[in-house]
Amino acid sequence: METLQLERSEGVATITLNRPKVKNAMNAELWEELSRVLDEIAKNTADRAVVITGAGGDFCSGADLGGGGPFSGEQHASFVMAHINEIPLKLHRLPKPTIAKVRGVAAGAGLNLALGCDLVVASDNARFSEIFAQRGLVLDFGGSWLLPRLIGLHRAKEVALFGDVLPATEADRLGLVNRVVPDDELDGFVTGWARRLAAGPPVALAQTKRMLNESFQRSMAEALDAEGNAQVLAIGTDDVKEAVKAFLQKRTPTFEGR
User: Fold this and answer.
1) Could you give the number of structural domains in the chain?
2) Listed residue (186, 103, 204) closest to 212, CA to CA
């Protein structure tokens, strides 16, 4: 791949956006490669947790507005509507837990790529911005759906309408991130979280992620029905039997996802 790096270790698949000269801005090739990688990870049972990050000290500065970017050329509207929107949906539906590891800039679609992950861990040097309004654009890559769910409607409007650059401490205060850690501790912290998730019960984690993602569209009664169906599925796995044995034997369970 030309714009991404994919590394695998101990059940963790790490996707690194790799256009550091432009702060990992997303061009058409990156969109294509990211879409393919998400499809591959979704089907690969050995990939049990996913980390998304950026090369060169930045996460992602958003869409590449220069030559070759999705907002240049005659295919602008059709490219955005027919292709780019598939990627945040694939990320949202991915049946594996995901962590955004954010250093430096996370702006525009880059910010929403991070927010679309299940967990966001930021370096204390990270900077966040829904920059769209300052470019005459509107929220995309799922931002209009993600922001109000994460931080509430009024705060979402403040972040989106002004498009200000927010330091990591402010992003933490608003609820955009799960953790802010010193930059020299970021890699170790995320690796620890990712390995814990990769060692967890895949079926249970996938069902839990799905139910939480769908919770805002359900009534309490519907949520209870969904929980019941998911629990029946989980109880039927060997992982539950292994967890009970491990509990009785006072050891850590080994989950295999079946």
Assistant:
1) 2
2) 204
Which pLDDT tens digit goes with each residue over 31-44? 999 999 999 999 99
**Residues 157, 147: Cα–Cα separation, whole Å:** 9
One domain for residues 176 and 59: yes
The one-character DSSP state at 252 is: -
Q: Are residues 137 and 230 in the same domain?
A: no
Residues 206 and 194 in one domain: no
Instruction: Collect all residues with Cβ–Cβ distance below 8 Å to 142 and sequence separation of at least 6.
Output: 88, 89, 92, 112, 115, 116
Rounded to two decimals, the pTM is 0.94
At 223-247, the pLDDT tens digits run 999 999 999 999 999 999 999 999 9
29 secondary structure, DSSP code? H
> Which strands form 12-17's sheet, in the order they lie side by side?
4-9, 12-17, 49-54, 98-102, 119-123, 179-181
| Residue 212 and residue 94 share a domain | no
Residue identified by tokens 């994919």 is 6
Do 163 and 239 lie in one domain? The reply is no
Q: Are residues 207 and 228 in the same domain?
A: yes
Closest CA to 180 of 188, 172, 190, 191: 172
Q: Is residue 253 in a domain? A: no
Answer yes or no: is 34 within a domain.
Answer: yes
Give yes or no: residues 78 and 189 share one domain: yes
Phi and psi dihedrals of 181, rounded to 5?
-130, 155
Alpha-carbon span 160 to 129, nearest angstrom: 8
Exposed/middle/buried for residue 94 (C-beta within 10 Å: 0-12, 13-18, 19+): buried
Residues 6+ apart with CB under 8 A from 4: 15, 16, 17, 18, 30, 33, 34, 37
* Same domain flag for 153 and 213: no
